[in-house]
Specification:
The protein has 232 residues and is an alpha/beta fold. The chain has helices at residues 25-38, 47-59, 61-65, 120-139, 169-181, 211-223; strands at residues 5-8, 69-78, 81-92, 96-105, 145-152, 187-193. Helix 4 (120-139) links the parallel strand 4 and strand 5 (145-152).
Length: 232
Amino acid sequence: MKLPFLAIVLALPFAAQAQTHAVSGAEVLRLTQQYVSVAPKRYIGSPGHIAAENFIKDHFKPEAAKGNLIADHFTANTPIGSLNMTNYIVKFPGKKDGIIVMASHYETNYWLKDINFVGANDGACTSALLIALGEYYRTHPPQGYSVWLVFDDGEESIKPEWTDSDSLYGTRHLAAKWSGDGTIGKIKAFIVADMIGWKNLNIDKEGNSTPWLLDTLYKAGKNTGHSNYLFR
């Protein structure tokens, strides 16, 4: 089974807000600033990583009270030994049998821990986007498929040399877990957002994503006035 997958670098300028938007760029920017302020360095095992986890959990207390915030703890074998990691999954039940997953990593690069790197345009922006989407779905529950927001851990490599074995720890763990318990068969689309803070970013039409999802992205961009940022 091949899962419909879309890896996108969202290019919604923070200053822009079309009337059709459920989530404003200004709100995402505000949450990004808060996130970076609370947890500027979020590499695994650091106090900032714990602060980042708490920031996410604090924003989803209503979902936690309903049992819809899942802390997925696991241990990953890395080049520096075993590390404890946690994915956070926030579930918004829909009315149809199926799941749309929207994911982002929330940590910063371990190997950049000793320099002034805060990942504002990386995991901070996309974590803020998912939080803003969660605030929307809290008051506007999905009418179609369920929506799961996944804050995955350990996307970045531990060593500077990115390899298949030293990266994507959280999503590889989820893929194995969901394959085993049957969840993967219910997923209609898996969308990964990354690097959304570039005001003039151009999203390439890359070849690793499912074509009809790319088409859906382009149509959505056109309908919301953002086609200038897609596939130039």
